[in-house]
């Protein structure tokens, strides 16, 4: 249908919200609670109000659907006043500590305040307006109830920054089905929080921190620990970077999503003083070799099926907490981070004759949950904590900015070759479907003993939340599925419980589109951003000289010199793990 | 004409027989045995009965919508959340004649085909809750409630749901959220409750006073009913008179009666209390407009005139009223009762309350006047639900009338 916006005609679909038509046509409407991953919108922030000829009052464009003959005005005096007053009200309630804030420069509230020239706390009395000391309580006293959570390893919460937009509540409830958050209290004391304000007890996927418009929910900051290690002359800082990091870190420095920044990333890490920079993709290749081996073993032993991937710590935690009956179905393989790290502290230190005590193992991850994974009690295969510090991409970028390092200006550098040669298969771990495709490239060759004519398994690619395929391997029908976002995983688990699905191998990633949409990725996120990131990954896999994990020359050498063969006793000890029933 | 208060103090609310003796439950019997659901709705539509909660939506149309929405389950809820400061009409009906509400509720549930009905009662109404519990128990004993009611094929179960005393839960979608066990917050509309309400099923939420009118309509017919009151707003209404009048309390009067009459007629308020000079009347609870002496002669009816009768309360302020305290009490109430969902209401009522505190203490800042204007404007124009608009009504009028006095 045709509608009019600011006196110009536009095409709109039946039932489409006004906001979506405006966005598509580049008509700017400010929003704080609406988010492309959270549809339909709830209309809580009242920033997106517009005037229409259908109603006397202003309407929220995120919830109001278009109708025939609708005429919309997005910049009238009333609309502007509504935005400004509501923004000023929010601003008055906000911490207002921008300069020291983690999200400085990347805060949606700050951006709007700038756009609408909100530069003072209009509704808060100023010190000079007070007539005596005992009027001090007139100053910003509405923080009487501030919830701060520092008692979990991954997510930092400080409600002083919170604008009660509820994105966190909705993403946790609607996308992840975990429902860790809810609203507490009423009126001006209304607060996002956990039940009875217990420390966050969830799967730590960090999607809440990825959609939070301000710094109310952020990754737990481990920059200080990292800096301390860098400064310590006794310590050798060995860092690894996850597959997806190189495709997204550029966004923190103004590049488009999906820009391949591997060389810049390595250069930046060396620039801040890391001694060695290794590639988690090698860990991913190792995961594939071990996982393919495990799959083949399960096929021989006729189960238990399906085998679930275990490289996503949020997914593992979800199974442990909510569906422990599926623990035997989780692959015993550790994640790439946790496979590469013990190799660093055993194989590599032995080779280089370094005392592993001296090593500080750091990983740069797109993920908040990896902070938790590194601290899992059963993961210390090297005899030490395998990974000492986990930083999300956002933290690394923050540190680089703090140190005034602009990767754009640095000359590209290569990973340290000892643990830095990787394949296209490992690179695919960056996105949903990647582990599956990489595993198939190896498993199918191992089972058939013949080389694959075509390495791409397009049937497991794509963006839909749940995809499945049947692959003919030497007459055996291998049924596989790929799901991302916990809501889809939960559906699958329920189907399996009811006996409606019988897959052999299932890849699960907790975050939308996998790690490329991880909770530690740069903001803003959304389907369009992730699509661009995925395109970057796919292009890179295509251009890689080696595209199958088992053909990784470094790994071949490591198996020969150190591990023996896939599934060997040493491999079991270093590369496999066990799980715990954590159901309450 | 008395419909609602006729038997007050004549019957024993704790004994169903005393209600039955006055002809109670005959309407329910008639509705079940002699009328089809369509006929009941038709009758209520023809009567012109409008919702007594304040909005004045035609009750029959609402029922019709729920009846025509196909669904396996439907719900009927009596709204007895009444939490407007100084309003106690619904509470008093429940106390004086609980079966009148229950009978209306059962007729409504029969009409829309609901098997489950609730009385959503304000959690502070302990005594009324007990009375209703007893009334329901006795009605069950007489087969007015339960399986095969009065030997028919109709099953209706009625339960009392105690709210937590939140003002916002008087708004029907917030009330529904509350019954579902969720936070009492308004929902996005549409869908409207008669289409998708409690647990997503067609649901009618009617004010207790509205329902108390229904037995009369069924018994005496729509025509008789529609002749009471004025065209467009038939029937009688309970008015609550408070403040500087001689007689305070609840008075039943036909719709269309003016505030002038209600305040000064000896049948009702009986004039100003001795020694008090009229300043203004606030009509419709804390969210009501302030009406000056010259404008009291407007008939109080739905959708007519400069001000609404709202829930029907009239608070009379006199010249000795402490305006600053009054402003504070309004701001305090709406600040406390904001559910916190949308920005203008959550933050706006809070800042207004802060300013009201300053006004009370004579510590007004220079910028406060401009800030009040901004807050009242945003509350009136940008909030998610009407609570925000309500919060601004009395303040806006007060600023117009007494702004100079307050700010000098």
Describe what this molecule looks like in 3D.
The complex is a heterodimer of chains A (584) and B (408). Chain A is α/β, with parallel strands linked by helices and 584 residues long. Chain A has two domains: 2-75, Ubiquitin-like (UB roll); 225-575, Rossmann fold (3-Layer(aba) Sandwich), CATH 3.40.50.1780. Chain A is built from 19 helices and 18 strands. Chain A has helices spanning 18-24, 77-93, 108-115, 167-175, 207-211, 223-231, 245-248, 262-271, 280-301, 313-322, 336-352, 369-374, 393-402, 424-427, 434-448, 486-497, 527-543, 553-563, 569-575; strands at 2-5, 8-11, 49-52, 59-60, 71-73, 148-149, 155-158, 182-184, 191-193, 217-219, 236-241, 276-279, 307-308, 359-365, 389-392, 466-473, 476-484, 505-509. Chain A has a five-stranded mixed β-sheet with strand order 2-1-5-3-4, sandwiched between helices. In chain A, strands 12-11-14-15 form a four-stranded parallel β-sheet, with helices on both faces. In chain A, helix 9 (280-301) crosses helix 11 (336-352) and helix 9 (280-301) crosses helix 15. The longest helix of chain A has 22 residues, at 280-301. The radius of gyration of chain A is 25 Å and the shape is globular. The termini of chain A are far apart. With 408 residues, chain B is α/β, with parallel strands linked by helices. Chain B has three domains: 16-227, NADH-ubiquinone oxidoreductase 51kDa subunit (Rossmann fold), CATH 3.40.50.11540; 233-318, Ubiquitin-like (UB roll), CATH 3.10.20.600; 323-407, Up-down Bundle (de novo design (two linked rop proteins)), CATH 1.20.1440. In chain B, strand 7 and strand 8 form a beta hairpin. The longest helix of chain B has 22 residues, at 386-407. The A-B interface holds A 42-47, 49, 57-58, 60, 63, 78, 81-82, 85-86, 88-90, 92-93, 122-123, 125, 129, 131, 135, 138, 142, 163-164, 182-183, 185-190 and B 166, 183, 188, 335-344, 346-351, 353-354, 358, 363, 365-367, 371, 374-375, 377-378, 381-384.
């Amino acid at each position: 249908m045709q509608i009019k916006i600011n006196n110009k005609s536009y095409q709109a679909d039946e039932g489409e919200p006004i906001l979506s038509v405006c966005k598509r046509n580049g008509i700017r409407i400010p929003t704080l609670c609406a988010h492309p991953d959270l549809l339909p919108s709830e209309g809580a922030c009242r920033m997106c109000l517009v005037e229409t000829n259908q109603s006397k009052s202003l309407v929220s464009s995120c919830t109001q659907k278009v109708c025939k003959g609708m005429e919309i005005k997005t910049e009238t005096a009333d609309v502007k006043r509504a935005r400004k007053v509501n923004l000023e009200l929010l601003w008055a309630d906000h911490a207002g500590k921008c300069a020291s804030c983690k999200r400085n420069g990347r805060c949606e509230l700050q951006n709007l305040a700038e756009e609408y020239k909100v530069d003072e706390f209009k509704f808060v009395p100023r010190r000079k307006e007070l007539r005596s000391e005992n009027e001090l309580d007139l100053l910003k006293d509405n923080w009487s109830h501030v919830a701060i959570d520092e008692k979990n390893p991954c997510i930092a919460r400080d409600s002083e920054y919170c604008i009660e937009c509820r994105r966190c509540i909705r993403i946790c409830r609607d996308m992840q089905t975990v429902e860790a958050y809810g609203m507490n209290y009423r009126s001006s004391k209304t607060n996002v929080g956990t039940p009875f304000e217990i420390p966050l007890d969830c799967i730590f996927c960090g999607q809440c921190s990825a959609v939070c418009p301000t710094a109310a929910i952020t990754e737990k900051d481990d920059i200080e620990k990292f800096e301390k290690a860098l400064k310590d002359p006794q310590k050798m800082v060995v860092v690894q970077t996850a597959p997806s990091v190189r495709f997204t870190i550029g966004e923190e420095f103004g590049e488009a999503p999906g820009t391949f920044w591997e060389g810049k990333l390595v250069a930046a890490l060396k620039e801040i003083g890391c001694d060695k920079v290794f590639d988690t993709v090698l860990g991913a290749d190792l995961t594939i070799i071990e996982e393919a081996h495990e799959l083949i073993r399960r096929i021989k032993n006729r189960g238990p099926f399906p085998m679930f991937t275990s490289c996503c710590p949020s997914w593992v935690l979800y199974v442990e907490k909510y569906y422990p009956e599926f623990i035997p179905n989780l692959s015993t393989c550790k994640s790439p981070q946790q496979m590469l790290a013990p190799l660093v502290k055993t194989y590599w230190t032995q080779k280089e004759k370094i005392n592993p005590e001296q090593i500080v193992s750091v990983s740069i991850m797109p993920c908040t949950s990896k902070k938790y994974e590194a601290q899992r009690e059963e993961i210390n295969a090297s005899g030490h904590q395998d990974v000492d510090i986990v930083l999300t991409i956002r933290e690394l970028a923050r540190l680089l900015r703090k140190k005034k390092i602009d990767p754009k200006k640095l000359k590209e550098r290569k990973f340290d070759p000892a643990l830095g040669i990787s394949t296209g298969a490992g690179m695919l771990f960056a996105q949903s479907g990647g582990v599956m495709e990489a595993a198939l490239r190896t498993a199918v060759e191992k089972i058939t003993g013949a080389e694959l004519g075509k390495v791409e398994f397009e049937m497991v690619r794509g963006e839909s939340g749940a995809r499945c395929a049947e692959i003919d391997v030497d007459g055996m029908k291998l049924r596989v599925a790929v799901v991302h976002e916990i809501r889809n995983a939960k559906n699958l688990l329920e189907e399996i419980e009811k006996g409606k699905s019988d897959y052999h191998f299932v890849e699960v990633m907790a975050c939308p589109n996998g790690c490329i949409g991880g909770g530690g990725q740069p903001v803003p996120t959304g389907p369009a951003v992730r699509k661009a990131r995925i395109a970057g990954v796919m292009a890179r896999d295509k251009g890689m000289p080696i595209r199958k994990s088992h053909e990784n020359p470094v790994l071949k050498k490591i198996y020969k010199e150190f591990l023996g063969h896939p599934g060997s006793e040493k491999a079991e000890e270093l590369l496999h793990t066990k799980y715990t029933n954590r159901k309450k | 004409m008395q419909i609602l208060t006729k038997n007050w103090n004549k019957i024993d609310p704790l004994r169903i027989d005393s209600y039955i003796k006055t002809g109670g439950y005959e309407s329910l019997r008639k509705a079940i045995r002699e009328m089809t659901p369509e006929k009941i709705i038709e009758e209520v539509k023809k009567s012109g009965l409008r919702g007594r909660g304040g909005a004045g939506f035609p009750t029959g149309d609402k029922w019709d919508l729920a009846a025509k929405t196909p669904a396996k389950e439907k719900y009927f809820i009596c709204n007895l959340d009444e939490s407007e400061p100084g309003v106690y009409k619904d509470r008093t009906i429940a106390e004086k004649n609980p079966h009148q509400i229950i009978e209306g509720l059962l007729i409504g549930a029969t009409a829309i085909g609901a098997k489950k009905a609730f009385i959503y009662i304000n959690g502070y109404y302990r005594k009324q809750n007990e009375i209703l519990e007893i009334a329901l128990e006795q009605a069950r004993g007489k087969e007015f409630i339960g399986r095969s009611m009065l030997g028919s094929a109709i099953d209706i179960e009625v339960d009392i749901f105690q709210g937590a005393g939140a003002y916002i839960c008087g708004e029907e979608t917030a009330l529904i959220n509350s019954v579902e066990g969720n936070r009492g917050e308004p929902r996005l509309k549409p869908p409207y409750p008669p289409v998708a309400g409690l647990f997503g099923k067609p649901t009618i939420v009617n004010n207790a006073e509205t329902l108390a009118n229904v037995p009369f309509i069924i018994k005496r017919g729509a025509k008789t009913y529609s002749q009471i009151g004025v065209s467009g707003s038939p029937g009688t209404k309970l008015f609550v008179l408070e403040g500087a009048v001689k007689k305070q309390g609840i008075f039943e009067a036909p719709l269309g009666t003016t505030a002038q009459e209600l305040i000064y007629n000896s049948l009702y308020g009986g004039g100003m209390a001795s020694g008090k000079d009229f300043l203004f009347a606030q009509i419709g609870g804390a969210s009501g407009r302030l009406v000056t002496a010259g404008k009291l002669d407007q008939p109080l009816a739905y959708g007519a005139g400069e001000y609404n009768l709202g829930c029907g309360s009239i608070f009379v302020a006199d010249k000795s009223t402490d305006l600053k305290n009054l402003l504070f009490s309004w701001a305090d109430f709406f600040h406390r009762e904001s559910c916190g969902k949308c920005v203008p209401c959550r933050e706006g009522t809070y800042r207004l309350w802060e300013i009201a505190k300053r006004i009370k203490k004579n510590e007004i800042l220079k910028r406060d006047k401009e800030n009040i204007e901004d807050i009242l404007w945003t509350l009136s124009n940008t909030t998610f639900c009407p609570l925000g608009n309500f919060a601004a009504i009395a303040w806006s009028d007060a600023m117009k009338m007494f702004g100079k006095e307050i700010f000098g």
